[in-house]
Amino acid sequence: MSDREQYTPGPASGAHVRKDGGKWTLVLVRELRHSPEKVWLALTDPAHLREWAPFEADGNLGTAGTTVKLTTVGAPTPQVSETTVTRADAPKVLEYKWGGNDIRWELEAFSGGTRLTLWHNIDRRFISMGAAGWHICFDVLDRLLSGTPVGRIVGGEAMKFDWQRLNAEYAKQFGVVPPDFTQSSKLPEARSGKPKAPGAPGTN
Questions:
Q1: Which H helix or E strand runs over 167?
Q2: CB 3.0 to 4.6 Å from 124: which of 4, 24, 128, 167, for a disulfide?
Q3: Is residue 148 a contact partner of residue 65, using CB atoms and an 8 Å limit?
């Protein structure tokens, strides 16, 4: 059995929601056994992103002012958004937008590794979906950096790896009702082509 076939995500953990009126921000924290420099490379280099992230990047995200096209992976229809890196303080803080939503990465040296924090503005209806998707992406990232890659797991592929369980667990933690993703194609965001959450079947 391959490493990918053996992979099962652990329980929902390390996430909370910041609420500012109608604006909700997912905050997801993960402690990695790798240096900030190594994690920074995985967050910014297109070849590394291709192995774990929910999007492809046509350029390096490591320099402020750089304009990069991000293509969401696993989307039922092509979704490409152009972003400009607004902050890149290597290897500590990285900021840009994905599909019009703010993405902020914070890297803190911690016990020989890195405490990685993601801040992602997500529509409150899809906040648990986002947490579930990023949870799996973070697992894949950790394995990539450890030298035991399992390959990117996003979109419909995540359904094979307990995405639904994670979605339900995070929804319970956040006090929200899990969305009916089978109806997501009828929502305005789906028609607009704006990505709502990584790893969510039919919604990226």
A1: helix 163-174
A2: 24
A3: no
Cα-trace Rg, the chain: 16
Q: What is the pLDDT of residue 185?
A: 43
Classify 88 as helix, strand or coil.
strand
Per DSSP bridges, beta strands 67-72 and 101-110 are unpaired
Tokens of 71: 């293509």
- Residue type at 9 in one-letter notation: P
Residue 186: phi and psi, rounded to 5, are -90, -10
CA nearest to 174, candidates 139, 112, 122, 137: 122
Q: Hey, what amino acid is at 14?
A: G
Provide the residue count of the chain: 204
Q: Which amino acid is at 79?
A: Q
* Residue 199 scores a pLDDT above 70: no
Report the 10 Å Cβ neighbour count for 123: 18
Q: b/e per residue, 147-158, with b = 16+ CB within 10 A?
A: eeebebbbbebb
C-beta of residue 131 within 8 angstroms of C-beta of residue 31:
no
* Tokens 């789906």 found at: 190
The 10 Å Cβ neighbour count of residue 142 is 20
Q: What is the mean pLDDT of residues 32-53?
A: 98
Chain segment 99-156, per-residue pLDDT in tens:
999 999 999 999 999 999 999 999 999 999 999 999 999 999 999 999 999 999 999 9
